[in-house]
Design a protein that fits this description.
By secondary structure, this protein is an alpha+beta fold. A hairpin with a 4-residue loop joins strand 1 and strand 2. The protein contains five helices and five strands. The strands form two sheets. The protein has a three-stranded antiparallel beta sheet with strand order 1-2-3, with no helix packed on it. It is 53% helix and 20% strand. The chain has one domain. 17% of the residues are buried. The radius of gyration is 14 Å and the shape is globular.
Length: 95
């Protein structure tokens, strides 16, 4: 079972472990990737990845009452206008 790898028993616990494993940069309001050995790597510059990560972090954080996940997602959304711009004709550009 996937949860056994993380010492967790529910899918939400596994999701929480994965989300918390990814380093969040409070200065640029984005998450890092990590490699298969578990080492933190560069910031993921794909906007959709960051957006989905924030949405899942907020959802899981709310379900588990995890303020770290809620705060990271909130910080991402609060600073979204600083980390992305819209180009003509509606193309999203991630800073």
């Amino acid at each position: 079972m996937l949860g056994d790898c993380f010492g967790s028993t529910t899918p939400l616990d596994v999701a929480s472990e994965v989300l918390l494993h990814h380093e969040y940069d409070n200065e640029i309001h984005l998450w890092h990737t990590y490699d298969v050995s578990g080492q933190s790597k560069a910031i993921d510059l794909t906007f959709n990845h960051q957006l989905w990560f924030a949405a899942v972090a907020y959802t899981v954080g709310n379900r588990l009452g995890n303020s770290t996940l809620i705060n990271r997602a909130g910080d991402f959304f609060q600073h979204l206008t600083e980390t992305m711009t819209l180009l003509d004709p509606g193309l999203i550009h991630h800073e």
